Amino acid sequence: LDVLKAFINALLDPEIIQNLVLTLRRVVLGVCIAVGIGCSLGFLMGSSVLAMKLIDPLLNPLRQVPVMAWVPLAIVWFGLGEGPTIFLITLVATFPVLLSTVSGVHGIDKNYYHAARSLGASSFSLIRKVTIPGALPDILTGIRVAMSSGWMSVI
Question: Which DSSP category does 71 fall into?
Answer without folding.
Answer: H
